[in-house]
Batch of 3 targets.
Target 1
Amino acid sequence: MNWIIAIIQTLLFVALAPLLAGWLKWCKCRLQNRRAPSLFQPYKDLIKLSSKQPVVAEHASWIFTRSPYIIFSAMVLAASVVPFIAVDLPTSASADVIVLVGLFGFARFFLALAGLDIGTAFGGMGSSREMTVSSLAEPAMLMAVFTLSMAASTTNLSVAITHVLEQDLVLRPSFVFALLALILVAVAETGRIPIDNPTTHLELTMIHEAMILEYSGRHLALIELASQLKLMLYGVLIANIFFPWGIAESFTPEALGYGLLAILGKLALLAIILGISETVVAKMRLFRVQEYLSFAYLLGLLGMLSHIILEASR
Amino acid sequence: MILVLAYIAVFLSFASGILALIEHQRPALVTLSEAFFTKIPNLHESKRAWITKQLDAKHFPRGLRLAVFLLLGFSGVFAILAGLSVMLSSSVVTDQLALGLPWMKWQVRFDSLSGFFFLIIGIAVIAVSLFGPGYIRSFEAKQHPFEVLGLFTGLFVAGMLLVLLADDAFFFMIAWELMSVASYFLVAFEHEHAVNRRAAFLYLLMAEVGALSIILAFGVLASFSTDFTFNSLREAQLSSTWASIAFVLALIGFGMKAGLVPLHVWLPEAHPVAPSHISALMSGVMLKVALYGVIRFCYDLIGTVHWEWGVVLLVVGTISALGGIFYAMMQPHLKRLLAYSSVENIGIIFMVLGLSMIFMANDQPQLAALGLIAALLHAFNHALFKNLLFLGAGIIHHQTHELNIDQLGGLIKRMPNTSMIFLIGCMSISSLPLFNGFVSEWLAFQTALQVDVLDNGVLRSLIPVSAAALALTAALAAACFIKVFGLIFLGLPRSRNAEKAREVKDLGMLLGPGILAGLCFLFGVFPGLIINLLNGVAKQVVGQTLPNDTALGWLWLAPVSAARASYAPPLVLIGVMIAGIFSFWFLRRDAEIKAMRRAPTWDCGFGGLNARMQYTSSAFTMPLRRIFAGIWLIDEQINKDMRGAMDLDVAAIHYQLQVQDHTWPRIYQPIAHGVNNLARLVGRIQTGNIRTYLGYSFATLILMLWVIS
Amino acid sequence: MTIENQDFYSQAILSMAALVGLMSFLMLGQGRLLRLIFIFAVQGFLLTATTALAAYSLNNPHLYISAFLTFVLKVLFIPWMLKSQVIQMNLHRDLEALKNNTLVMLGGASLMVFSYYVLHPIVQTSSAVMLNALAVSLSVVLLGMLLMISHRQAVAHVVGFMSIENGLFFAAIVSTQGMPMVVELGVAFDVLVAAVLFGIFFFHIRTSIDSLDVDQLNRLHEVDK
C-alpha cells in the first residue's frame, strides 16, 4: 500500500512539474505586462517535441543520444525520494539528502558530457560554466543541508520533516540562514536569473542552454522535463523542510488530499516570489557568480555556527 | 594454513621476478632441455615438441612474458585468498621466520587489517598482470629489457606484501625499503629521458628521507620498550609528549610515501614517467601501504590516540584533498592529472581517518569504527578506480602515443570498449551514486555529521567546515573528470594520432581494467559485501563494529541507525532502471519517430567547424582558474604577431600557459638552497691539500686521546 | 541545553543575536558606502527590536525609553547624517575594491568560533542563552574591528566603530536586562557626540588630503620621504 502511494506520488510529481513551469511563466508575464501563454503550454510543448523526429549532430556519439534518458531517470528518482505530499513513504528511506545531491550530480555529469560530445565551442562553454557554478554551489548546499540534518540529527528527509513537525513553533536562527542559503543555491542550480537566464540564447550569457543547444525532438523534451523537475524539486525541498505544515502524516485520503493542496499552495507562492525576483533583478556577470555563491556559503556557514553556538551548546 | 596462502603469494611474486631474469639465458635453457631429454628418453613426443617450441627464438620472449605475468597474477589470487580467509575467520596468525639477525628473528603477524590490504593488493595485481603482457610489448627489447621490468615488478609486489606481514620494526623497514627501491628502478625504467631520471631521483630521495623519519619514529617507541618486535612496542608506556613526537615522525614518514600536501611533490613527477601498469600499482596500492603504516602505528603500536592527532590529520587531509584536486584540474597531461588526483583521494582518506581518531579519543568507539571503515573503504575504492584509470591511460598511450589531453578527442567512436571502461572509472572517482566512490564519500559525510556527540565547541565547528571542503573537493573532482573524459573521448579528434587510433586488440589489456570497472559497479550497488568485511577490521583495530539494526541488512546501508540515515543502492538502481527503460520505450514506441536524422552541427552559419574550435583543457578550467587564482602560480602569456601597415593587423596569436604548484618554489627550493649553502660551508674543509688532511687526522687523534683520558 | 527546551523569549533573543551577527558579516563584505550605512541602520533596528522585546517580556518600562533612543539615534539620525555626508562628498558612487574578501570573511567566521571559545569558561555558571548571546556580541565587536582593518574609507571606519558599540549595547541588554537609565543616556549622548565629531573630522581630512582614504593619511607625515 505504502509503495503504491509512493509510486503515485512520484508520478504526480512528474505530472505536475510542467504545470509549475507554466505557472511561473504566467506570473512573470503578468508581472512584466505581457500576455501570458496558457498554463498548460509546457505540456503542449512537451507533447509536440516528443512526437517529432530528433535531429542529431553528426559528430555526436551515444553519450549525446542516451544522456537525456539518464538525466531524466536521475531526476525522476530524486523526485521519488523527496517527501511531496506525505512523509514516511518507503522510497524516502532508500536515499537521503546526500544521495539526493549525488543524483543531481549524476544528471549534471551527463549533461556536461553531452555538451562536450558535439564538438563545438558552445557545448564546451556551457559544460565548463555549469561545472564551475555547480562546484561552487555544492558546498553551500551541503552546508545548508548539514545545518538541518544536525538540528534534526538525521539526513533522512522524511525523518527530518517529521522532526520539525513534531515540535511546536521553534524560532531557530540556524534555519533562517539555512533557508536563505538554500534559496540562493536553488536559484543558481536551476539556472534562474541572476545566475543564468533560462530564456536566453545569446552566446555569451548562456550556461544551461549552451549545453543543450543541439538537442531536439524527444531528447529535448526529456531534458526540458528534467529541468522542470529540478526546479520543482528545489521548490518542494524548500517548502517542505522549512514550512512542512500541511504535509500528510497518515495515508488517509483526506490527509493526502489536504497535503496535496498544501504543497500546491506553497509551490504557487514560491513561484510568485521567484517570478517577482526574476522581474526585479538583472542577470549577473559570470564572474560575479562566485561572490553570490560565496555569500550563500557564508550563510550556510553562519547557519552551522549559529546551530552550534546558539542552539546546541553545552 | 592462512599464513601458507600469504607465503605463497609472496613467494610467487618473488618467483615471477626471478623468472624474468632468464630472458637472456635461452641458450642455456636449450642445453638444459636437451640434457633433460637425454635423461628421460621415454618422454612423450608431444610434450617434447611443446618444450622445444617454447624455447625457440620466436616463441620464447612472448612465452616468458606470459609466464612472468601469470605467476604475478597467481600471486594476486593467493593474496586475495589469504586476505579473505584471515578476514572471514577474524583470526590473528603469528609466526617466526628463520631469517634476519641471529638474535632477532623476523616476526610475522597476519591479521584482519593486513588481510584487508592483502585484498587490495591482490585485486590490483591481478588486473595489472592481465593488462601487462599486451602493454609491455610496445617497449623495445634492446633499450628497455624486460628482465629489469619483470624483476623489479616482482620485488615491488613482494615488498608491499612483506610490509603487511611484518611484526617487528626491523623486518618492517627491510620490506619497506625493498618496496621503495624496487619502485625507484621501475620509475627510472625509461631512463633515456633526463626528466625521468630526475623524477626517479627525486622519488628516491624523498622515499629515503621518509624512511629515515619512520625509523626515528620506531626508535622513539623502542626507547620505551625492550626490543624491536611490535609486541614489545605495543607494551611501551609513552608519555603523551613522546607519543606525539613519535606520531609526528611517523606521519612525516608515511605521509611522504602517501603523498600528503606538502610532501606530495614526488608523486606528480614519478607517477607519469613510470610504465602505466606500474603507475597503477604505485598510485593504487603503494600509497595504501603508507596508509596501512599510519593505522598500524597509531592505533596498534602507540595504542592510545589523542584527539589533537585527529585534528592534525583532518587539517592536513583537507589541505591535501583540496590542493590535490585544484592542481589536478589544471594539468593537461593525463597521468600527471591522475597523480594529483591520487593526492586528493589520499587527502580524503586521511581526513576521515582524522575524524575517526577524534571520535576514538572522545570515547566514541562506534563512531571511530564508522570513520575507520569509511577511510578504509575509500582506500579500497580508490585502489579500484585509480588502478582502472591508470590502466586506461596506458591503453590510450599504447594506441595513440599521446597523453596530452589537448591532443586527443573523439576516441569514443574508435575505442568503444575502452571508453566504456574509462567512463565507469570517471564516474566512480567523481563519486556519483551507484558507483563505489559515492559510498565511501557518503560514509565520510555521515561520520562528519555525528559531531553532536563532541563536547569541544571548536571541534564541532571545524568538522562541518572540513565536510564542506570535502563537498567542494567532490564537486571539483566531478568537473575535473568530466574534462578528462569529455576531452579525450568526446568531440572531434584534435590530432592525427587521435584520428588514427584503433581499439586495442589484446583481450587482456581490456580485461584487466574491465574487471576493475565491474568491481567498481558491483561494490557501488552492493557496498554491504565489503563493509561486512571491514566490520571485522574495525573490530580488531578499535574494538567496535557498526550496528546493523535494519531487517534487510544487505539491501540497506544504515551506518548509525535507520532513522539517522539510510541508503539503498539496489533500490536506487531499480528506480533508475524503471524510469529509464520506461521513458526509452515510451519515446521510441513507433518506428517513424524512432529514427534519428543526422545533420551538420550548428556552426553559427559561418561554416567550417573544426576540431580547433572545441574547448581545450585550459579553456575548460578557465573560470575556476580565475576564481581561485591565488592557488596556483600562473604564468599566462599572450603574444600577438602584428603585420600590415603600421603593424595593426593581428597575424597570429601565441598563447602560453604554465600552471605550477606553490610548494616547489615556496618550500623545496629554499630547502635545497639551504642544503647547498651548508654543503658549501662544509666544503671549505675540503681544501685538497694533503697536509691539511694530515692535520685533521692529527687533531682528531689528539682530541680522541684527550677524551679517553 | 538545546533550543527546543527554552522559552519563547530566549529563542527570540537568540534569533536576534544571529541576525545582528549576520548584519556584521554583511557590513564586512560590503564595498559600497551607502549600502554599508543601510545595513548599519538595519542592525540598529534589530537592536531596537531586541530592547523592546526585553522591555516587554521582562516588564521593564524604562527599556522602552532606551529602545526609543536607539531607534532615533542608530536607525534615523546617524545613518541619515552619514548618508548625507557621503552624498555631499560625492563618495556614493565609489566602490571600494576589497582585497582578499573571502579570506576576511572566513577570518570573521573563525572570530565567531574564537569568541565562543573564549567566553566558554567565563560564563560557565550562567544560563546558556546568556553565554551564546554574549559570544555573538563579542564577535560583533571583533567583526567591527575587522571591518575597520579591512576597509580604507574613513566613513567605513566610523560605521565599524559604531557597530562595535552596537555589540556592546547588545551584550548589555541581554546580560544585565537593561543598564541604569543614567548610563544608557550617557552612552547615547557619547555616541551622538562621536558621530558629530566624526562628521567634522571628515571635512577636515578631506580638505587637507583631498580624500577620505585612510591609507592616504600617511601623507600627513611631517618629513617628506
Target 2
Amino acid sequence: MKTNVIEQAVIADPDARLAHEIKERQRARDKRARLLKHLFLVILSFVMIYPLLWLVASSLKPENEIFGDLGLWPSSFEWSNYTEGWNALPVSFTVFYKNSAIVTVLSVIGNLLSCSFAAYAFARLRFDGRTFFFGLMMMTMMLPYHVVLIPQYVLFLELGWVDTYLPLIVPRFLAADGFFIFLMVQFFRQIPRELDEAAMIDGCSPFKIYWAVILPLSLPAMGTAAIFSLIWVWEDFLAPLIYLNDVQSYTVPLALRMFIDQEGQSAFGQMFAMSVLSLVPVLIFFVAFQKLIIRGIATSGMK
Amino acid sequence: MRKFFRRNTAGYVFLTPWLVGFFFLALGPILVSLYLSFTRYDMVSAPVWDGLGNYRYMFEYDRRFWKALEVTFTFVAFSVPLRLAAALGVAMLLDKGLRTIGVYRAIFYLPSLLGASIAIALLWREMFGLNGVINQVLAMVGITGKGWITDPDTSIYTIVVLAMWQFGSPMLIFLAGLRGIPRDLYEAAEIDGTSRFRQFRRITLPMLAPVIFFNLVLQTIEAFKTFTSAFIISNGTGAPADSLLFYTVYLFNEAFKFFRMGYASALAWVLLLIIAAFTALAFATSKYWVHYENERD
C-alpha cells in the first residue's frame, strides 16, 4: 500500500522521483558500506590488540614456545612465570608495588588539591595578573621536561631529597602539571556563575564556595584528572630513574627494567608475566572509568 | 590599598601552590639551565664559565649531536603524519553510519594509555627481535625477516610503528571535532552529487582545520619529547650504531651518565628552541590554512 503511494508520487512528480532515487541508492550504499566498515574495523581491532594478547600469551607459555610458536594458546600454562617472576629480582615485587602505590596515591592527592586550587583561581576569582599567569601556565604545558630536569635535579640534590620519594611527590603538590589545571578550568567555567553569586550573597567565603559549590559539582572532572594522573604516575619512568638509586625504593617500572639488565635468556616468561601485572591496574581503571577518560579527552582536547 | 588587598587576596591564596611550583620548578630551572649551558659543570665542583664553548663544540665538533638531531627529526617526520592520518581515517570511519562505536573506540584508544609504559617497550623489543612474532608472520608469507631492532637501518621504524599504534588519543579529538560539523553540509553535497573524496576535501578538511592544527602542534611536541620507548629499546644507549639516539636519550646520557651537566643544559636549550620554533612556525602559517568558523565576517 505504502509503496504504491510512493510509486504514484514518483510518476507524478519528477522531483519526488529524484529524491526517492537518491534515498534508495543511498540506503543500499550505506548498508554495503556499513558491512565493509565493520569488517575493516574488526580486523583493525584485532591488529591493535594483538600485541597485548601476545604479551599475555607469552607470559603463560613455557620458555621455548615464546619465540617459536605463533599461536596464542600455550601448550601448557606456566603459572610459575608469575609466582617465580614475582621473586626473580633481588627484591620482591611486593616491595615494588608498595613503593609504586605510595608514590601514586600521594601524587594523585597532590595533583587534585593543588591543580583544583589553581584552576578555581583562574576560572572563578578576579585578581590582577590573572590572564598573565594563565598565559604562563599554558606555556609551561608546552615545556619539555628535559629542559628543567638538570636544575631540578641540582635543587633536589641540594635539599638532600635524592633517593627519597619527595622529588616525585612534592612537585605534584605544587600543581606542576598544567594539563590538569587546564582540564579543570575548562570544567569549572561551565558551572553557572549564579551559584557562586548566590553563595557569596549568603556570606560564603571564596574557600567555602570552592569547597561546597565548585568541588561537589566537578566530580566528573576530578575523576578524570584522578584517573589520568594515576595512570601517568604509575607508568612514569624518567623521574624515578633519575631520583631513585636504591633497589629497595624502586617503583614497578624501574623493577621491570632490571629484567633486561640481567638478560639471562631464560627469564622472558617471567619478564612478560611481571609486565602483564604492571598493566593490570591501568586496565582495571580504563575499563571501569572509560567514559570519564574519553569525555576528559574530548573536553580538554589533549593527550 | 585596602581595596587592592581585598580584590586580590583570595586569588593569590588559591594560586600560591602553583606560583611556588612555577618559580621553583619551571621559571627558576629554565633560567638556571640557561646559565649552566654557558658553563662546564660536573656536579662535584662549582660550574666554570665557558662562554659559548658548549654551543660551539655542539655545532662544530659533536657528531653525536647531529646524529641525535637526524634520528629525532626522522622520527618526527614519519611518526606525526602517520599517526595523524591513522587517527583521522579511523575517526571518520567511526563517525558516520555506525551505531555501536563504543567498543571500537575503547580498543583503539587503549594503546595510547599503555604505550608509554615500560611493559610495552619491553614487549616491542621482543616482538621485533630476530625470533620475534613479526618475523614469524613474515615467514608465513615467505619473507625472511631480520632483527629489525638490531639493524641500524630499520630500528627507528619499529618506534615509528609503536607511535602509530598509539593513534587513539588524536583519534578521540578528531571524533569530537567531526561531531561539530553540521550534517546538512554533507546532505547538501550528496544531493548535488558531490563525490565522497570531494566532500572530504571541501567540507571535512576545512571544517576540521582548527582541530587538525591543534593535534599537529601537540603531537609534534610530544614526538620531540619521546624518551621511554627509545631508551628501553636501545638499552639506554641509543644503540645499534646510534640509530636510536633520540635527542632526549642523548641528553639523558650526557647529564646522568657522564655528568656533563653544562653541556646537557646546552642540549636542553637547543631542544627548547627547536620546539618553540616549530610551535611558532605552526602558529605563523596557521592563518593560511586554518579558518575558525566564528571568525567569518
Target 3
Amino acid sequence: MNFLSIFVLIPLVMLLALWLVKGQNAIRAVMAVGSTALLGLAVYLTVIFLSDRAAGADAPMLYTASFDWFTPLHIKYSVGVDGISVAMLLLSGVIVFTGTFVSWDMCKEYFLWFTLLSLGVFGFFISVDMFTMFMFYEVALIPMYLLIGVWGTGKKEYSAMKLTLMLMGGSAFLMCGIFGIFYGSGGQTMNIIEIATQTGGATAIALPEQLVWFPMTFVGFGVLGALFPFHTWSPDGHASAPTAVSMLHAGVLMKLGGYGCFRIAMYLMPEAAHELAWIFLILTGISVVYGAFSACVQTDLKYINAYSSVSHCGLVLFALLMMNETAGTGAIIQMLSHGLMTALFFALIGMIYGRTHTRDIREMSGLMRIMPFLAVGYVIAGLGNLGLPGLSGFVAEMTIFVGSFQHEDTFHRVFTILACSSIVTTAVYILRMIGKILYGKCTNEHHLALTDATAVERFPVIVLICCIAAIGLAPFFVSGLVNDGVVPIVKHILAAAV
Amino acid sequence: MDYSQFLYMHEEMSLLGVILLLFVTDLLFCKDSKRGGIYNSPLPVILLGVMTVFNALPLSDVQFEAFGGMYQHTPMDTIVKTTLNVGTLITFLLAHKWLARPENLVKQGEFYVVTLFTLLGMYFMISSGHFLMFFIGLELASIPMVALVSFDKYRYESAEAGAKYILLALFSSALLLYGVSLIYATTGSLYFNQIGIANTPSLLLLCGLAMFLAGMGFKISLVPFHLWTADTYEGAPTAVTAYLSVVSKGSAAFVLLVVLAKAFTIGGIKMDWEIAFFWIIIASITLANLFAIRQSNLKRFMAYSAISQAGYLVLGIMGGTELANDGTAQGMTAMVYYLLVYLAANMGAFAVINVVEQNSGKLGIKDYNGLYQTNPRLAFLMTLCLFSLAGIPPFAGFFSKFFIFMAAFNAGFKVLVFIALVNTIISLYYYLLIVKAMYISESDKPIATFRSDGYTRVALALCTAGVLLLGIAGWVYNYLTEIGMQSL
C-alpha cells in the first residue's frame, strides 16, 4: 500500500465515521481530526518530498505505485507526485482544514458531501492515470450540486444546476479527449508519464489527431478553470454556494482545471499546444481583462470575488499557455496564491454576511469600527489580491508577467501588456470595495450592534493569512518546489516545437 | 436422436422445472384465496434464487451446439441469463407487497408462472442458432408479457397498456417474421451461421434486415419504434414496468448483438446496419432525453429514461459484433457490463418508486418534493441509483458508461460517442430534477414516513450493493472480458 493513497483513505474513513456518529460534537470531532490528518499528511509529504529531491531522487514522479484495475482496458490505479501535485495537495489540505472550521455549525449531510468533494480533490492530485484522474475529477463535481442546492443562498437552485451542467458538459468533452489520447497513443496505457515519454507501449499521437483532441481536452478542463466564454457558471455558483463550499470550489476545484490543462492537454499533446495556443491565449486574455472589468461593476461581495476569480484563474491558464519555465512556475504559484486568497475572501464574506445579512456593498459602510478583526482580514485579503509585495499575489503575478514578456514576438508581448492592465483594474475594484464597506461612517444602525469574529472563526482566518504571508515572504521555497514539476513538463513541451 | 442433448440445455430445463413446480403448487395448494396460499411465503423467490445460483456456479466455459445447431450456447449466455435471473428475482421481491393486495391474492400463482415463462422465452432467444427457434423464444417472451402488463385488469390504465402492448407487439412480430422470410428468400437458410456465410448484399436482404431490426427495435424500444413505451410503462403495475425496462429490454439488446454477430458481419451488410444504428442511437438518446425532461409522472419519466439508456446499451453493438483490435470482445463485454449495472441502478430506482407507490399511492414527480425530510434513506438510495444512471462516479454507472463509450470509440464511431456524451448532460439534468425534488423543493404535503417491507429491503440492498460495488470491483469487468473472448 502506497502512502499517497492515504489521501483518499482518510476521507473514506471520515465518510464512514460521519455516517455512523450522532450528535454535533461527534461530527465536529470527526471533521476536525480528519481534516487535521489530511493537512498533516500534506505537510509531511512536502517535507519528505523536498528532502528526497535534495537527496537526488530525480524520477519525474516520486512515490509511484500502480495497481491493476481494469486490465483489459489498461486502466490502472496509479499514483505519484511531482512538485506541482505536492503544492496542490498542500493547498487542498489547507483549504479543507480551514473550510471545516468555517462551516463549524453545519449538519451531518453537509459534511458528508463536503468530505466526498475533498476525496475527489485529493484523489485527483495524486493520480497519474488518466482514468483515475477523470474519475476523481467527476467525484469532486457532483457533490457541488447538493451543497449549493440545499445549503446555498439566493437563486441557489438555478446556480447549482447551471454549475453542475456546465462542468459536466466540460467533462463530456474531456472524456472524448481522453479516449482520443488513449487510442491515439496506441491504446496501451492510460498512464500520463508513460504516454508522454512513450514508454509502456505508448506511441506518439499523430498531429492531426492532436489537433482534434487538444482543444477538447483543453476546453474540458478549461470550463472548470473559468475559461472565457465557459466561465458563466462561476459567478452564479460562487455567489450561491455556502461559505466553505465557495472556499473549496474557488480555492481548489478551479485549480483542477489549470492542473489538468497543463498535465494532460499540454503535456501529452505538445505539438497541438504549439499550434493552437494562440486561440486559447486570446480566450484567456479576454478572461483576465473581462473578469476584472466585470468585478468593477458588481455590487454583491461574492460576485465581485467570483469575477475576480475568473480574472485570476484566467491568468493561470494564460501563463501556462506561454509555455516557458518562468511563466509556468508563476502559473502554479498563482494557483496556490489565488486559492488561499479566494478562500480567505470567501470565508470573510461568509462571516460578514452571517452578521449583516446582506452582501450588497451599497448597504454596508464603516464596518472597520464594528468588526475590526474581520475588517483587517478583509483588507489583507484585498491587498494580497491586488498584488501588494510581501503577500502571495505579488510573487505570482510578477513571475507570470516576467515570464510572459520573455517571448520576443509581438503577439505574446501585446497580450502580456493587455493582461498586465488587469493589475490596475484589480486595484480599482478591490480598493473601491474596501473603501465602501469598511471605512467611512456606519449608516445602518442595525450594524452598530454587531460583534466581531468568534474564536472558531478567527482560527481559519489566521491560518490563511499566515499561509498567504508565508508565500509572499519566502517565495523561493515555494517556487523551488513548484519548479521541480514545471521544468520537466515545459521542457517536454518546448522540445516538441522543434 | 441423442437425448443427452437436453442436458446441455440445463438452464432452460431447470427454469422449466421451477415453472412446473410453481404451477403444480399453485394448482394444489393455493386456491384458497382467504389464506393467500403459500405465495405469501417466499417460495418463488427462494426457488428462483436457488436456480440462479445453481446455474451460475458451474460456469461452463464450453461453447456447444445442440439439435443440429438450433441451440447454440456460449459462456456469455450463462452470464446474461444469470443477470436476467437476478432481474427477475428483484422483480419478484418488488411485486410481493402488491401481490398481497386482496384483489391480487387469487392471481398470485399466475404472476409468477407467467413471468417465468417470458423469462424462458428470453432464454431461448439468447441461445438460439436458428431463426425459428429465435422466433418461438420471442413470442414466448412477448405474449405472456401482455398478461403481466394488464395484470391490474380493473384499473383502466393497466388494461389500456395491455391493449397497446399486444397490438404493437403482434404488429412488430409480424414485421419481423416477414423480414425473416425475406432473409430466407435471399440466403436460403434460417441458420445464423449459414446466413453469415451466404449473405450477399441485395435489396431484398436489406429489406429483410430492416424489418428484422424494426421488430427488435420495438422490443428494445428504440426510437422510432418506441411509441408504446411511455403508455405501457405508465399503465403496467410498477413491478412489471421494472421487469419490462430491464429484463425484457436487456435480453432483446443482447440477442440483437448475438444475431448480428453470427449472421450479419461478413460482407458489406455490416456497413448498412451500422449506418442504420448510427441514426437510431442518436434519435433514441436525443429524443428520449428531450421528452424525459417534460414528464411529470415518474413512471413515464423512467420510460423515457429507459429509452435513452437503451440507446447507450445499443452503442455496444457498434463494433461489438467483432473482436476489437486488441483481441478482446470489447463491445460485447461493455454491453453486458452495462446491462448488469443498468439492472442494479434501474431496479433500485423502481424499488423506491414501487414502495412509495404501495405505501402512498403517489407517482408524480411533484409528490416527491420533500421526500428527504420524511424518508431520508429511501431518498438517499434513489439518489444513488439516479446518479448511477446518469453516470456519476464513484457509482457503477460511471464505469459502464465509460467502457461502452470507449468500446464504440475504439470501433471508430467517434462522432457518435461525442453526441452520446453531450446527451449525458441532458440526462444528468433530468435525473437531477428528481434529486432536486427530493432534497431541495419544499412541500406542504410530503409523502408520510413509512417503513418499507422486508422484501423491498432485500431488493434495495441487492441493488445498492450492485451500484456501489460493480464499478469499483474491477474483477467483474475483467472476468466478463475473459468470457467475452470465449464467446464471440
